[in-house]
């Protein structure tokens, strides 16, 4: 499906997403009817390879889709964001295995974790897997669990040439997964980010790959040097979309609400006007930085060149900066709205909670500011993915 069709689908579904937000909060997952509509629109597989029937969207195309849905509801946008990352991982497998996962027509819906939470024991034809993972966002509507495990050599981990435990990614059908109800949280309640577990499940060898294996596909989206930036571009989209939705929520509120101690409408108060202007500038500037930095990175890989540290640093910095700036913008809106912002029935309250959870994601780690600074100073960052 073309990127314009997917963005049009996101805009068409946005009112449905917005209307379903209270139910998502109550169910602590994406409501089944909404998940089905998103599935039929192809929005859970934005990075799935074209060779498997997927859209293989460029990073900024996927950004726009996730941003649009996140603007309507952060939790559903988060589910799309994680699903995009999961569909990117399919490019690590040979095409035959990828086709088995995606099906015909392509309907790849993945959930899972890059953190090793299990043990994979080699047996004839594959691996026996036992483990437990947390934060499996969207597991209720997923078809496959992406499970990262430590390969075992007897009772001890198998070691790489560098002396570190060898990690292996394995794909397990949802029907073989136990979902554990742990998702009782302050924000992002509608993501269904439950714990999951498997016990002595057999996974065929062709549905697994070393976690550090290079992608089997060589089209620009799957360039190994840009892999982390592509994965996390949609994380920035989720945060910026929530912030945009919060700005719109305050604008709607300001035209009709005053406060207990002041009968003047919010829109007529200089402090509200100033904070709204500041929030708008913060979000627009952060978004422009992401578009520029990811755009430069995409231009490099699209030309068949390897991006250097400078391109990677700017892209990673733009993503992390956007997520933190989204929080800063919404904090301004939340506080200037006063007690109007604290009611759970209002989108501004949910945006405040959701964003303070979003910024805990690995894409927003403060250490990435330090890493980018090292690159600017001609040094090499120590954290992975550079």
From TrEMBL:
Domain Acyl-CoA dehydrogenase C-terminal: 234-363
InterPro entries: Acyl-CoA_DH_C, Acyl-CoA_Oxase/DH_mid-dom_sf, AcylCo_DH-like_C, AcylCoA_DH/ox_N, AcylCoA_DH/ox_N_sf, AcylCoA_DH/oxidase_NM_dom_sf
Keyword Oxidoreductase applies: yes
Top-rank taxon, per record: Bacteria
Acyl-CoA dehydrogenase/oxidase N-terminal domain ranges (all copies): 18-86
Keyword tags: Oxidoreductase
Listed PANTHER family: ACYL-COA DEHYDROGENASE (PTHR43884), ISOVALERYL-COA DEHYDROGENASE, MITOCHONDRIAL-RELATED (PTHR43884:SF12)
The name this protein goes by in its record: Acyl-CoA dehydrogenase family protein
